[in-house]
Amino acid sequence: MKQIEFLLNGNPICVENPTPDCTLLDWLRETRNLTGTKEGCNEGDCGACTIMVTDRDGTRALNSCILFLPQLHGKAVRTVEGLRGPEGETHPVQDAMVAHHGSQCGFCTPGFVMSMATAQHCGQEADDDTLAGNLCRCTGYAPIIRAAKDVGQTPSPAWMADDLSLLQQNAIESDTVARPKSSDALATWYEKHPTATLIGGATDVGLWVTKQLRDLGSIAFLNGALDLKEIHKTENGLQIGAAATMTDVLNAVKPLYPSFAEMLRRFASLQIRNAATLGGNIANGSPIGDSPPALIALGASLHLRKGQTRRTILLEDFFLEYGKQDRAPGEFVEAITIPHQPDALRCYKLSKRFDQDISAICGCFSILIAEGRVSAARIAFGGMAGTPCRATHVENALLNQPWNAETIATAKAAFTKDYTPLSDMRASAEYRIMSAQNMLERYFSESMGLPTDIHEVSA
Amino acid sequence: MSVAKSLPHDSGSLHVSGEARYIDDIPTPSGTLHLAFGLSEIACGTIDSLDLGAVRSADGVVLVWSAADLSPMPDASPSVHDEPLLSTGEVHYVGQPIFVVAADSHLAARKAVRKAEITYRKKLSIQTVEEALSADSRFEDGPRIYSKGDAKQALDDAPHRLQGQIEMGGQEHFYLEGQAALSIPQEGGEVVVHSSTQHPTEIQHKVAHALNIPMHGVRVETRRMGGGFGGKESQGNALAIATAMIASATGKPCKMRYDRDDDMMITGKRHDFQITYDVGFDDTGRIQGIDFIHYTRCGWAQDLSLPVADRAMLHADNAYHLPNARIESHRLKTNIQSATAYRGFGGPQGIIGIERVIDHIATHLKRDPLSVRRANFYTDFDETEDVQTTPYHQPITDCVINSIVDELCETSDYRTRRRAIQSWNAENPILKRGIALTPVKFGISFTLTHLNQAGALVHVYQDGSIHLNHGGTEMGQGLFQKVAQVAASRFGVDIDQVKITATDTAKVPNTSATAASSGSDLNGMAVQNACDTIRDRIAEFLAEKHKTIPFDVLFENGNVFVAGTTYSFAEAAKLAYENRVSLSATGFYKTPDIKWDRIKGEGQPFFYFAYGAAVSEVVIDTLTGENRILRTDILHDAGASLNPALDIGQIEGGFVQGAGWLTTEELVWDNRGQLRTHAPSTYKIPACSDRPDVFNVALWKGENPAATVYRSKAVGEPPFVHGASVLLALSDAIAAVGNGNEYVALDAPATAETILHAVNRQKQSA
Ligand SMILES: Cc1cc2nc3c(=O)[nH]c(=O)nc-3n(C[C@H](O)[C@H](O)[C@H](O)COP(=O)(O)OP(=O)(O)OC[C@H]3O[C@@H](n4cnc5c(N)ncnc54)[C@H](O)[C@@H]3O)c2cc1C
Ligand code: FES
Ligand code: FES
């Protein structure tokens, strides 16, 4: 990129020759002396660096530590320094946080304040969900939630509205750093630069830079390609563009597959979901990505594109082995289609911490029962093998069998034929197998109407 | 009077606006160098070859130092000179600093350190308790043993006897602001160090030693930390020394802040413990004799491990009277990060030991654990009865635990809920609930007696504004505000008239670490002493002027009243100034009545005790071990609170941190001795939704019988222990799976995985 433009706390800023992998956080702190935004982890996990970003699609909270400058082109950025009103008035969220003793050491506070102000700006009351991506080590969160309740749904101050019409400059691309405006433009550029790094939300790539200190080479930012973000119903199913964010995906699947949506609610944090794309979650090939097992259980297919050549494969066939996917150089993920079907999907994500954690395992089950027997079963897991993959032996043990405890017991035993998981810092192999088996039991118990969800219990 | 008011944190409005400055926010002169350490990749061995050529030629690099460049090698240890700043050939853990790079940016320094080529000659490392014991790898020549009565005889005579063991993991501090220091060279070889430290004097001392200059040549300033929790008591030394030395060598300001992963790889954590017990008791569960053995992995260097392990022993009784007790403690030297201070300083680990014992006894006797707890509590103090003593022979003269527990049982509806949970569990095969009440009695004072002192410096200006300084540091706990409230109260002025300034070794010398919960006790008293000196001078002067006695001069509501005349405080100050009355004073305080022999395990290590109790209710999923805290009620004794809102903040925050330690916060080292959980992606502190759904915290209405500042009590560490109620509630929920014959024996952290294993053990025995 040779030039980008965005609003910073209301004022248009034009950055010439931005370092393409310079994070917004470093730029704010080191170039602009805006040190209110903090670095707590530099990897998207703590929220101390939270800022508010507005574009045509609306306003959302993002982590500035894994957000590259070019991703901001055409948007409005508001940092904690931009919360005060024109006369120096404090923002209602700031007042509430002081009144309720919501800060102790104060280091997490700017991030919380930004998450809360953004929620308020979007007409929501900040809650456990909105704040799952903000860690506080001091307060135990109670006073912060009291402050959030106090702010409630009072309207966001007028001065928080950003006027995107103040932006006039076009982004000027360079040969090695592109921001294609459509899937077609991306296809053409990527064919010419087949070894380039594609950046969706940068929630993986960001860490390559901030933690692995990697050099990204040529880069294409996908967030300018509006057609890649589209989500619509087709004849075949629900088609989701590769650059749709997890937040958009969550909203789209909620009415159709509520358990998928509930699992996505626990996908990272709001800040991450607001950036992360579905395409990135699939293309990274991670064995512990959360959307693949659910999508595989739903029988989703993947649309790949290289230049003018398009092909569609089953998502489950995309993952060849650990670190290897069925994707050629210069080929990218264009979209995903979830076929229409009756909803029998249950997604069980198991992680050390309930919110904002990577899965130890993620089990997704879609089992159809007709006349007391299993008529169809698709079961897929993440975290059980080198790739997200199906539990075919378990499926076969279920198929055409009566839907009862005996069948479940037999099918549970088949898990060891499907998977030989590893032990790591998230879980032991033994625990992975045991809980995968028990997830099938949970699915069964749930279908029998037994309470199985700890979130439905209250004191 | 501003004392006892729930005023907001003094920096609250600066926090929310982002204006509050931490080390990395301080504007630095151009030319500032940024430092990073190159770290060892093996757990034990020696460096064979160290090729730093590529590091030196990396972009932006200005200077690279390894052991070859430093003689003598400065020491970073807070205790026994066993932590060379950089490895001098021996490598003791994965993450040990081997060389340091100074570059023109933080990123350039981080990139450069990765270019080193190091080869090692590996030695067998010592990781586990068993390995350390069999190699006799330890600090001190043998175990410490404290005892009272005759534990062996009492065990032999007791009607019931049980043995068991509990393991509890360590804990990463995860202060949100990582370690950081900025050193600015001054004329004449002096240096000013801005450090995110709980112990500016220690930083000053270590830097002066490294630079080989007197302490007066080093000024250390600490305005605030973005969290400390003990992790900045000694762990900031290395950054301060490195920046100061390179600043002094290059004449350029030097800054160093650890990247989060580096921070977690380099710095020490809470000590993990393995505690075995042998306990004898009667039919009501009353303990007659107990024998504990503590094993703790101290890591590669001594740091503060001895007093930490001592404090664990000193809390082996928690709130229970143990007539015959023996506690043996092994401080093991292992090839991991050097474990360090962490909120509670070993106390919580000692307490978890006895709480486990009580829980085990209750299962054995098939009684409500609360009844076993009550059977063992120290009696609330009553002059007519014989005084009970702790296992280290300190008389307990301030116990209120029985009254606290009675009240908490009522307010939390413990009994009814316990019954309701039992019937709920009978109907629910998959989900199980559990409830537990745990007490805390926490000893207040540094066990190293000489540390129990503090100084203050107070100036009153001629306009009546007050400048306040003391030796304590602000890490979020609200110390500055509490102390300012004391000052405002002494002068009878509004809190806004008091300016609290950064902790500065040039203003108050020879300070102790802000630790052991003692911050407001010590510094509040020192400030009170300084304020009273000035106030008495003003009073004396006005009394003389108005021909009355100083006693009749009153400082109230921003005014000074004397013999029918009212001055505003500002007028009084101005008048005093014009009459050549000194309006500046130092203050000093040392805690009375403490003495302690840590070798014998006898004496009066604590000035007083803080008490409290918590009830937590949890639910577990017996298929996966997933769990949640449904409700927690806490009643905590902060004496006559200096600031109830800040104290409640410490209790809420301490509880959640304690619950995190015992549940999701798992440190995992692999078999090469490398810490695998070195970032928040793998090390999980509680998130927002992990706090209890229903969370009731109240302060016990009481006064400290000990003569503390305004009769308040220390509140930093004790509430951390309330997290124990979660571990024991989980144990209770797991027990609901079994038939009551096999004890749950839940280790910590009780991750979902640990819980599922415990559930399966119950299923198998049922
Ligand atoms: C704090 C944190 C928490 C997280 N929690 C979770 C979690 O709970 N569950 C989970 O599954 N993941 C989690 N992640 C991982 C990450 O957020 C997801 O994998 C995310 O979906 C990646 O999307 P992205 O758009 O940000 O990918 P990017 O970082 O932009 O890209 C990821 C990879 O995909 C490639 N890529 C991107 N788009 C395309 C495309 N259209 N075609 C071809 N290649 C493409 C990139 O080149 C890169 O190799 C977490 C990450 C962080 C930082
Ligand atoms: S710094 Fe932690 S999320 Fe960005
Ligand atoms: S106030 Fe210290 S981390 Fe939140």
Outline of this structure?
The complex is a heterodimer of chains A (459) and B (766). Chain A is α+β, with helices and mostly antiparallel strands and 459 residues long.
Largest sheet of chain B: 8 strands, mixed
Gross morphology of chain A: globular
Shape field of chain B:
globular
Task: Count the domains of chain A.
Answer: 3
What's the total helix number of chain B? 19
Q: What ranges of chain A have pLDDT less than 50 throughout 5 or more consecutive residues?
A: none
- Give the termini distance of chain A in whole angstroms: 55 Å
> What number is the mean pLDDT of chain A?
97
Query: How would you name the CATH homologous superfamily of the largest domain in chain A?
Result: CO dehydrogenase flavoprotein, C-terminal domain
What layout of secondary structure does this protein have?
The complex is a heterodimer of chains A (459) and B (766).
Chain A lengths: L2 E6 L2 E6 L7 H8 L18 E6 L2 E6 L12 E3 L13 H8 L9 H13 L20 H10 L25 E2 L4 H10 L4 E3 L5 H6 L8 E3 L9 E3 L3 E5 L4 H8 L4 H8 L4 H4 L4 H6 L7 H7 L3 E6 L2 E6 H4 E3 L2 E2 L6 E8 L5 E6 L10 E10 L2 E10 L6 E2 L1 H7 L6 H9 L1 H4 L10 H19 L12
Parallel strand pairs in A: 1-5, 6-8, 7-8
Antiparallel strand pairs in A: 1-2, 3-4, 3-5, 9-10, 10-15, 11-12, 11-15, 13-14, 16-17, 17-18, 18-19
Chain B lengths: L11 H6 L15 E7 L5 E7 L1 H4 L4 E6 L23 E2 L5 E7 L2 H8 L3 E6 L6 H6 L9 E5 L2 H7 L2 E9 L11 E6 L5 E5 L4 H12 L6 E5 L14 H14 L3 E4 L2 H7 L5 E10 L5 E13 L5 H10 L10 E9 L13 H19 L3 H8 L24 H12 L1 H14 L3 E14 L8 E8 L5 E5 L8 H13 L6 E3 L2 E2 L14 H27 L8 E3 L2 E4 L2 E4 H10 L5 E7 L4 E3 L4 E3 L3 E14 L5 E10 L7 H19 L31 E6 L24 H12 L16 H14 L1
Parallel strand pairs in B: 1-12, 10-11, 14-15, 18-19, 28-29
Antiparallel strand pairs in B: 1-5, 2-4, 2-6, 3-5, 7-15, 8-13, 9-10, 9-12, 11-20, 13-14, 16-27, 17-18, 17-24, 21-22, 22-23, 25-26, 27-28
Bound molecules: flavin-adenine dinucleotide and FE2/S2 (inorganic) cluster (2 copies).
The site of flavin-adenine dinucleotide has 30 residues of chain A, from β7, α10 and β15.
